Amino acid sequence: MTSATEDLxxxxxxxxxxxxxxxxxxxxxxxxxxGHPMAEDGWVHSHNALRMExxxxxxxxxxxxxxxxxxxxxxxxEWELDAIKKWWTAHKEHVTSHHETEDEIFNPYFxxxxxxPEKLETDHAGLVEIINEIDEDVSNRxxxxxxxxxxxxxxxxxxxxxxxxxxxxxxEEEVSKNRYISILIExxxxxxxxxxxxxxxx
Length: 202
Ligand SMILES: [Fe+2]
Ligand SMILES: [Fe+2]
What we know:
The protein is mainly α. The chain has six helices and no strands. Helix 3 runs antiparallel to helix 4 (about 120-140).
């Protein structure tokens, strides 16, 4: 058992059968089969990729403002608009496939053996609304575009997106002291199939 798992057990007991759907046939006794700490599992890594992109886009918005001086133009250049659209399309594809993987593969599988909360799935609907809002704004943009207007509009939506998404990712990983990942580790014996799902786009 890893020291991270030991620490966790001091605070929260994932082996309590109350978290299991069928503790007789699938008892919570599998943690010893895992050779990596929770922070290193594939699910957390896939969330870290989303966290990085959310942070990167905020940095890009700052750069667009700076470019007003650097490029001597208050309006966006064509290549900048192109880059924003391409980047957004890739991020949207990334986050959408992440949600689909959870909704269609992970969560139904989790629910065969653990009591996994509905909220983590219903959160996706709220996130999709914000994603659609960003998508509409970015897709409909045509030159000329004022840098200040673009940055202030996208920052406003992006901040809402970030405020919703970051707690959601954290909640999936570690509500109540890593509750869900630690329960999953206790109940499922095959980390490869659960946490390194080949359909994840990372
Ligand atoms: Fe999610
Ligand atoms: Fe997730």
